[in-house]
Amino acid sequence: MCHYKRIERSIGEYIAARYRRAVEVGIGNNPEAARLIQAAGALMLCTDIRSGIRHDGLTVVTDDVFEPDIRLYEGADLIYAVRPGVEMVPPLIALADRIDSDLLVYHLGCEIYGDGGEFVDCGPVLLHCYRCRGM
């Protein structure tokens, strides 16, 4: 479990240092990255398809990335997901395109989507940038 927290900490620190309005998709039961981004003042909110997910100090709303409520994401400069199912990546790309934000994904193991996007090294963690603003 400690290994996962180190990964989430690295992701959170990377995002907090580079973005001002981030949204985490699929927070589930792993709020570590979001908490670091929130502490830096850069987290808008978190989403998950399951209702009832709560993490003290974080705004978590129910939303389905396959049919997203665009209003939740408007104004974000980053959408990110930590260990999403690979089937979630195409709708995440479409969402990032629609609101003109970056999209960063940390994949489970060696699972990637397509060509893996642009690789982003943030210490012990390799992120995949599937979309950059202005593309």
Automatic annotation (TrEMBL):
<protein>
    <recommendedName>
        <fullName>UPF0146 protein L21_0980</fullName>
    </recommendedName>
</protein>
<dbReference type="InterPro" id="IPR005353">
    <property type="entry name" value="UPF0146"/>
</dbReference>
<dbReference type="Pfam" id="PF03686">
    <property type="entry name" value="UPF0146"/>
</dbReference>
<dbReference type="InterPro" id="IPR029063">
    <property type="entry name" value="SAM-dependent_MTases_sf"/>
</dbReference>
<comment type="similarity">
    <text>Belongs to the UPF0146 family.</text>
</comment>
